[in-house]
Amino acid sequence: MLVLLYIFTALIDPQISGNHQKMEQPGKNLDQDYYNSYLDGKKDPEAGRKARLENNLLRMLKSILPREDTFEGADYVKKLKSGDFEYEKISRDSMYTRGIFHELGYMVPSDYMYIVKSGPYLVLAIYEGDPERFLLDVQRTRVVKKGSNSAEHPDSQE
Predict the structure, then answer these.
(1) Of 55, 83, 133, 145, which residue is least crowded by CB atoms under 10 Å?
(2) What is the reported pTM?
């Protein structure tokens, strides 16, 4: 009971006493100017996410394509630059993604999976961490070259 009385008087007392005054800032409000200037000059942490992701995907393409396509991949990569490819983050919930992982039983899905399209190449890239936030190497990839004849590939079975 004593605690309730104390809380009640603490809440009521500032209103009863006439000593409280509104604090006014003298002069030009320099603190407001500083605060506004600080916020205007502050970099947006989300602004570099797209550039970092594209940098990670470009690095991945430049390292993967020459190994996967030994005939044309190295020449293609020499001309490749940022903005020359399309990409899309894919979800585990998509029926197509589930189909991909059903067919490729050895690949494990992740929260950070991308399909990258560049020229005739389609690449499934799986990252362990977030490539939008960190400079990362790709963990697993699978390359498909559109329009290529699978009978020419040395691993194809007849």
Answers:
(1) 83
(2) 0.65
